[in-house]
Write a structure and sequence with these properties.
Helix content: 55-70%
Strand content: 5-15%
Number of strands: 6
Number of helices: 10
Radius of gyration: 20 Å
Shape: globular
Amino acid sequence: MTSFYSWLRKYKVVNIFLVIAYYLLVVLPHEQVGIFIAKTLDQPYGRDTYNLIILVIGLVGLVGYLLPIWRGTKQLESGKNRVWMAFLVSVALIIVSFNMLLVVNVEIIHFIQYGVLAILMMPLFENYGDTLFFATVLAVLDEGYQYFVLAPLRTEYFDFNDIIIDLIGAAMGLLLLWIVGVKNEIEGRKWFKTPRFIGFAAITIGSLIAYLSGTLAIYPSEGDVQAPILLIRKIQESFWTIIHPNVKFHVVRPLEGLIILGMLFYFYAEIVFGKPLRLKTSPTTS
C-alpha cells in the first residue's frame, strides 16, 4: 500500500484524475444502483432476507478489515493502544449506525466508498486532517446532488445520516494508511493556514451569508414562498422515523448533524491521527 501511495504522490495529475473519476463513479449511478439492488435482492428475497444477506457480507468485510489492522499493530513500536482505540470506536460507531442511522443495510457501502476515496485523496493533501475534512465536503456534495438534483420530489430532508457514515468510512480508510507508516508530510503550519481551516471558514461564511439573505433555510416557513435551499422539507415530529414495520431509524437534524460531525472529526483528526505512530522498521513512503 505504501508503494501505491508513493506512486500517487509522485504523479499528482494522475492522482487528481483518479479521485475525480472514482468520485463521479460513486455519485452519479445512485439511481441505477438502487434499481439493480431492488431487482436483484430486495424484491426476490424480501426486505428481511435482503438485510440479513447484506449484514453477513458486512461482517465478513469487517473481519477482512481487521486483518491488516492486526498485522500492522505487530509492526508498531509505539501507538498500538491508539490503533485499537480507533478500530474499536469505529466498530462501535458502525453498530450505532446500524441501529439508528441506516434505513437499509446496503447503505454500509458508504463505509467502503468513502474509505477508498480518502485513501485516494491522501496523496494530494498529505495530511490526515485535511484529507478527512475534504472527503467529508465531498460527502456533503454527494448528498446535495441526491437531495436537490437526483430526487428532489422524493426526499424530505438533507441526509446528514449518510454524511456521518461517510466520515466514519473515510477515517477507517485513512487508518489503513496510518498503520503502515504513512505520515503527515506537511507539518509546522499555523492552524489558520491549513486547507481544512480555510475550507471550513469559506463554507461557514458562505452558509451564513446565504442564511441571512434568505437563500438558505433549515425548516420550511409558514408562507407559500420557501427559501431556494431548504434543508428540511418536512419536519419529523418524533425522534424515530418508521417507514416499515421493521424499519426504524433516526433522522439527524442539521444542528445535531453538525455537532456530531465536529466531534467525529476532532476525534479522528486530532486524537487518532494527531500524533505519528512509531514503526519497528522504517516505512518507505517517499
